[in-house]
Amino acid sequence: MQLDEAKSKFIQAWGALGSSWGVPRTMAQIHALLLVSPQALTTEEVMEALQISRGNANMSLRNLLDWGLVEKEVHMGERKEFFKAPKDTMYMAKQVAVQRKKRELEPMLRALQEVKEVEGNDKETQEFRSLISDIDGFARQSESMLNLFISSQQNWFMKAIMKLAGKQ
Question: Burial, 88: exposed, middle or buried (Cβ in 10 Å; 0-12, 13-18, 19+)?
Fold first, then answer.
């Protein structure tokens, strides 16, 4: 397999993975393209490589910037913006964890806190409180694990995961 074909397959696979995680396919494909590009790319180069519209490219690049997965780069004498993706896998994983926590877990924890205050003492209300309490406990444990991962150093965290998985 030639390099260009391998890059194309990776971009398509990364896009499919993003879709299965609720990330727009094009956004994930742009991220993949920037990951495999040896230099920063302009919006026009992204559009051409992926055959997408300017609006789609601009919106996806803005979202990737918001997630901290893409950085702008300034080139002296150029008016165009250039974009690159940090290639550190642990950094990428931490950025995704931070954003998923902020966008998904924290709102759920707030909602659980609110619904825990349900009034009543009948059997159905008690069962509801018990269920919410169990889900809240699991969500808080998940938050603790995410916080540990986000604040960890790569070697320590990966060694701990491998030990838990019985691979060491």
Answer: exposed
pLDDT digits (tens, 9 = 90+) for 94-136: 888 898 899 899 999 999 999 988 888 899 999 999 999 999 9
**Residue in the block written with tokens 């919410």:** 132
DSSP, residue by residue, 92-120:
HHHHHHHHHIIIIIHHHHHHHHHHTT---
Q: How far apart are CA 53 and CA 146, in angstroms?
A: 36
Concatenate the DSSP letters of all residues of 17-45 into one string.
HHHHTTS-HHHHHHHHHHHH-SS-EEHHH
How many other CB atoms are found less than 10 A from the CB of residue 4? Answer: 8
Question: Tokens at residue 40, please?
Answer: 């920063």
CA distance 47 to 80: 14
Q: What is the pLDDT of residues 8-37, one digit of tens each?
A: 999 999 999 988 888 899 999 999 999 999
Q: What is the CA radius of gyration of the chain?
A: 21
